[in-house]
Amino acid sequence: MTARPRPYSQFNFLIDLGVAGGPHAGFEKFSHINKITGLNKSTDVTLKRGVIGASTLQDWLNQIKKAPQGAQRTVEVAQQDEQQRIVHRWTLSGARIIKHTGPPLNAKGTEVAIEELVLSGERIKLKRG
């Protein structure tokens, strides 16, 4: 069997979870909301992907369970075009996981199991190209 060079072609948002060896996953959907409350401003980022065999996200979730105060990271999301070139890059500073929804698993269904990750950060910065 020949290995596919890009098995997750629709996952054009690559995420680096702030540890060595990134990008750590590819996501198919990315959205962010800037929240302004009083003098404070924060950003929530929502990422959705099909379940794949990467352990970096699970390692971060385990770190949060052990030491939630030290689990902030600088996360980068890169958007690729059809030729796999980076066209936009977002940097989320002071990011922490505020919601992780595992997929409903159904052996009778034919749909892809989708995992959702919501991060909250202190600041988001966009860099084009």
Structure characteristics:
8 strands; single chain; mainly beta; 129 residues; Pnp Oxidase, Chain A; eight-stranded antiparallel β-sheet
Give a brief description.
This protein is mostly beta strands.
Structure description:
This protein has a single domain (13-128), classed as Hcp1-like (Pnp Oxidase, Chain A), CATH 2.30.110.20. The chain is built from one helix and eight strands; from the N terminus they run ββββαββββ. The protein has one helix at residues 56-66; strands spanning 13-16, 25-27, 29-37, 40-50, 73-80, 86-101, 114-121, 123-128. Strands 1, 2, 3, 4, 5, 6, 7 and 8 form an eight-stranded antiparallel sheet that branches. The mean pLDDT is 80.
SSE layout and pairing:
Layout: E1 13-16, E2 25-27, E3 29-37, E4 40-50, H1 56-66, E5 73-80, E6 86-101, E7 114-121, E8 123-128
Antiparallel strand pairs: 1-2, 1-5, 3-4, 4-7, 5-6, 6-7, 6-8
Number of helices: 1
What share of the residues lie within helices? under 10%
CATH T-level topology: Pnp Oxidase, Chain A
Helices and strands, in N-to-C order? EEEEHEEEE
The CATH homologous superfamily: Hcp1-like
- What spatial form do the alpha-carbon principal axes imply? globular
Q: What is the name of the CATH architecture?
A: Roll
Low-confidence stretches: none
Mean pLDDT: 80
Category from helices, strands and their pairing = mainly beta
CATH class: Mainly Beta
Distance between the termini: 36 Å
Cα gyration radius (Å): 15 Å
Describe the sheet with the most strands: 8 strands, antiparallel
Domains (count): 1
- Give the DSSP E fraction (strand runs of 2 or more residues): over 45%
Number of strands: 8
